[in-house]
Amino acid sequence: MADLFCEPFPEISWLLPMDFPITKQFKRFDQNSPQCYGNMLKNGTVDYSKKSQPPFLYLHLVHDYGDHDKLFFCDQDQTLLKKVPWLIMKTDNYFVPSLFLIPSFEQELTNLFPEKEFVFHHLGWYLFHPSNQVWGLITRYYQAYLAKSDERIGIQIRVFDTGTGPFQYVMDQILACTLNEDLLPKINTRESVTTPFKNQKSKAVLVTSLNAGYSENIRTIYWEHPTVTGEMISVYQPSHEEYQQTEKKMHNRKAWAEMYLLSLTDTLVTSLWSTFGYVAQGLGGLRPWILYKPENRTAPNPPCRAAMSIEPCFHAPPLYDCKAKKGIDTGSLVPHVRHCEDMSWGLKLVDGLDYL
């Protein structure tokens, strides 16, 4: 944490003290732990009639969580959980959309976030302050390559297909999206040299990808041909690590720095299902163009669509009606929680009535 983030609260830490009584147990908590709330529900060991509850419970809200774990999002269960002094949670999900479906949370969440699609934006700016090392990566790169351009375009590329790449179908999709939506100018294939336009503008394209091939291809296109608009296009990619290396500190610093740099662009193109892109759009308050999933290694048509909000997608929401105790489409209950553009069963927050 300290390698990536500064403490967000003055004169106090967001980390537990080293002598916190149950810290050493954290790594052992999983779905089958006796202290796991979902496991207790499954085994029938939860007693709602007790005035006092256990000193702590473990909440397993990871993407592989079971039906009993998902009851965390039910009002009846929140009535019990609020009596427990400490809740230890493990999650890799952005589950905020489902909190907005808990009736007892509704008023407090509305007071905190009157604009529903800015939840992550506000929380991100409030909590996620880059460490000095990461801030150095961000500021040096921005000042050297992006600051002087008239416009900045971010393209975040995450490829889930196996193989090293770059893949031509991915390149075709990126170009189709950026050219069709006028994010990048078309090239002039008839002339090698064009007269500079008055008030000639410059666009900086920031590409983030594990592979260097996509940015090199875009750079080559705009080096070999002038643009029909007369704009000058420069293409930059801070790193190309080839594969994800989660346990390496410098790798993680670069990833965090690149998410932040993407958030500083004016227009953003992101890959579907990618939390890397979600963080960038949320921090920047940007509604990105989302690249559709290619099928059979063929560029989809259309290649992308505009996002309905800047919020990240909750990839593994419960699809359950707590009162009726049956499955339900949780994306149709309230106007400000809708299914995601890039994952049909996922949920995301929108600002309501425009999407009814």
From TrEMBL:
One of its GO terms (cellular component) is Golgi cisterna membrane. Keywords: Cell wall biogenesis/degradation, Glycoprotein, Glycosyltransferase, Golgi apparatus, Transferase. It is a single-pass type II membrane protein. InterPro entries: XG_FTase (IPR004938). The keyword Cell inner membrane does not apply. It holds the Pfam family XG_FTase. It is found in: Golgi apparatus, Golgi stack membrane. It is an enzyme of class 2 (transferase). The keyword Cell wall biogenesis/degradation applies. Belongs to the glycosyltransferase 37 family. May be involved in cell wall biosynthesis. This is Fucosyltransferase.
